[in-house]
Structure formats: structure tokens, C-alpha cells
Write a structure and sequence with these properties.
The protein is of the alpha/beta class and 373 residues long. It contains 14 helices and 14 strands.
Length: 373
């Protein structure tokens, strides 16, 4: 169905969410109509953040907000849905729009398979009534579902539209770009060259795909890398767990700005523990690029100051390859926790591939390599 028609049927004037490729039509529509406008559209750090923000909107206006997200974000909303929105607590009505990655019977990446299997069940378990929209769903069917939903929302309960692949159409074209010149893939090549045979934990999305292809192009083994294909925002905590238990080995974390924002508390934990053998590289393009390019707030905050305030002994920002190489070498020679923020352009190769090994193979090869160190 046309995305504009869905928005019209829902009838809300406030949307908040975390971008999703399955919902790209909706995301582009919201950016074209509202941009980033705190009165109408806010891209939040994580899905729990969105849910609480939506609750505040309802408390202030009495109206029903909309929260959009990929189904991987259901885990982040369980606590605020169960202990804040639920009709046994504050009875705050919210319309959720959930992109259904990993739908059974539809080929998808390994991190989406189980999440796809339990997507509707998790909504049921949270007492959220749902309606599935596919390519063949008619406007009239969605209107009828929304009529049923209005009665449910009026009772202080929540509802969800679950969006199948390619179900939403006719999105306006939106171009996402910034003023940075360094590409992420080239940045990763520089990291690979300087890190040598040190273990690398990389964040979900295109960064891990580019790391995999860089190793392949170099004729290198993939055993050096743990590709965090799911669990967005947690790669630095995985790296901390490895670094603590391999104190004599330098560990690298290749992170992204959207991932850092999603669970920024992990930086405080890293700073408090100060693992001397961990180098935290944050590639910051100010965008959720892997799922379409919608902006993050990381283009407007100072990650270096945040890292220092969290207790990182060293934190720097670079925007040229000359400075990048200098700071990566300095971090490698230094026996202290270091953050290197790298300002990055938006964009990737059209023919960028995906890992050809399974997630389980990646884990096993990485663990075998760690055992040898």
C-alpha cells in the first residue's frame, strides 16, 4: 500500500523511531514531510527510548503517538511496554509499526531468522494486538483494522502494524549526505593494515560486511574478526569481555555512531574498567546508513568529550587518512584504553557483498584464534 495512505489511516501527528530498511518508505516519507522536528518526528537512540518519548507525548497531549522500528527492537521495548504503557500500570496507548525482518519463508540474514519467527508472538505476549500488512493488503483492510484498533487504544492498550517486505510503496526520494570525504570501507582498510593480526570485533551492518570483504581482497583469514551481525549497540561490550579475558592481547572494536548511541551506557562501563588492551574505533557518518541513511544525532554531539567524561584515558577525532593512520599507530603503541572517532562520508559500494561464512563458523574460527594467543 502507499505509505502516505497508511499514515493518513493511522491519523497521528507524532512519530518517533529507529530506522529500518523494511520501513524505508515510511522513513523517507517522514523525512520528506517533517524532517527532524521534535513536534512531529524524532529519531531516537533505541526503541525503548522511543517508547518512553511516545509516552511523554501522550501525557502532554492526550493523543496517540506512533513508534516505528525493526522487529529486532522488540527486545528494547519489552520493559517500557510492560511496566509503563501497560493498562495495568499507566494505560498509555501507542501504535507500533514493526518491520518484519526474517519472516518465516522469506530468505534473510542469520541475525533475523529467530527474531522473525517470534515477532508476532512477542507482540502477543506483550498484549499488543497486531495486524500484518503485505503487498496484497488493501487500503480497506487496513482501515478496518485501524477501526478495531481505535477501540483497543481507547482502553489504554497498545496495537501494532507488522510490515512485510516491500509492503509499503510510493515513498518520496530523499538523499542523505554529509560533508565528510573519507569512505568507511577505506577507513576499515587502514584499520586492518595497522591492527595486523590483532583480533577485531566489528559492529552490525555494512562495517562488518566491508571488513569481511577487505580480508578477502587481502587474501587474509577471517579468523581475526568477530562480525557482530545482530545485537546492535553491543559490539564494544563484546570487545570488553574479550579484552578482560585476554589481557596480554590487543583487541580492536570497530563501531558505528548509531550503534554507540543505541547503548551509550557501555562507554561508561568501558571507561570505568579501563582495559589497557582495547582500542575503540567509532566510524561516525551521522547516519543509520545500513538501513537507508536517516540521520543520527551523532553529527551534533562530541563523542570525544563523552569518552573522556566516561573515563577513557585517551580519545581523539580525525577526519583525514593521515591523521587516522597516526592516531591508530599511536593507539597500537599505547598501553591504555583509547577511543578514535573517525568522521566518515555516507555511502557504500552498490556491489558490497555479505559474509560467505555462517555466524556459527565465524564464532568458532574466532574462538580458535583467541585460544592460540
Amino acid at each position: 500500500m502507499r505509505v502516505e495512505k497508511l499514515v493518513q489511516i493511522i491519523g497521528s501527528d507524532f512519530y518517533t523511531g529507529v530506522p529500518d530498511s523494511q520501513l524505508k518508505a515510511l522513513c523517507n516519507y517522514l523525512m520528506a514531510v517533517y524532517g527532524i522536528d521534535p513536534k512531529h518526528h524524532v529519531i531516537a537512540a533505541n526503541e525503548g527510548n522511543c517508547t518512553a518519548l511516545a509516552a511523554g507525548y501522550h501525557l502532554a497531549t492526550g493523543k496517540v503517538p506512533v513508534v516505528y522500528m525493526q522487529n529486532s527492537g522488540e527486545g528494547n521495548i519489552i520493559n517500557p511496554v510492560a511496566s509503563l504503557l501497560n493498562d495495568k500500570v499507566y494505560a498509555i496507548p501507542v501504535v507500533f509499526i514493526v518491520g518484519w525482518r526474517g519472516e518465516p519463508g522469506i530468505h534473510d540474514e542469520p541475525q533475523h531468522i529467530y527474531q522473525g519467527e517470534v515477532t508476532v508472538k512477542l507482540l502477543e505476549d506483550m498484549d499488543i494486538a497486531s495486524f500484518i500488512i503485505g503487498r496484497e493488503t488493501t487500503d480497506e483492510e487496513v482501515e478496518a483494522a485501524m477501526e478495531r484498533f481505535r477501540t483497543i487504544l481507547a482502553s489504554g492498550k497498545d496495537v501494532a502494524f507488522v510490515i512485510r517486505k516491500e509492503a509499503l510503496t510510493d515513498a518520496p526520494k530523499v538523499v542523505y549526505k554529509n560533508n565528510c570525504s573519507m569512505s568507511r570501507e577505506e577507513i576499515i582498510r587502514h584499520i586492518v593494515k595497522i591492527s595486523g593480526e590483532d583480533p577485531v570485533i566489528s559492529t552490525t551492518g555494512k562495517a562488518s560486511r566491508e571488513l569481511f570483504e577487505t580480508r578477502a581482497a587481502n587474501g587474509q583469514s577471517h579468523k581475526y574478526d568477530f562480525l557482530t551481525v545482530g545485537s546492535m549497540g553491543h559490539s564494544s561490550s563484546i570487545a570488553l569481555g574479550v579484552a578482560i579475558n585476554k589481557p596480554g592481547q590487543q583487541i580492536w572494536c570497530v563501531d558505528g555512531d548509531g550503534a554507540v548511541l543505541m547503548h551509550m551506557g557501555s562507554m561508561a562501563v568501558l571507561g570505568a574498567n579501563k582495559p589497557k588492551n582495547l582500542i575503540h574505533v567509532v566510524i561516525n557518518n551521522g547516519a543509520h546508513e545500513t538501513v537507508g541513511g536517516m540521520p543520527t544525532v551523532a553529527g551534533n554531539i562530541d563523542l570525544v568529550k563523552i569518552a573522556l567524561a566516561c573515563g577513557y584515558p585517551n580519545a581523539v577525532r580525525v577526519d583525514t587518512f593521515e591523521d587516522l593512520d597516526r592516531e591508530l599507530r599511536a593507539a597500537k603503541d599505547r598501553d591504555e584504553l583509547t577511543l578514535v572517532e573517525v568522521k566518515c562520508s555516507i555511502g557504500a559500494r552498490e556491489d558490497l557483498g555479505r559474509p560467505t561464512t555462517s555466524a556459527l563458523e565465524n564464532k568458532q574460527n574466532f574462538m580458535e584464534y583467541l585460544k592460540s594467543l
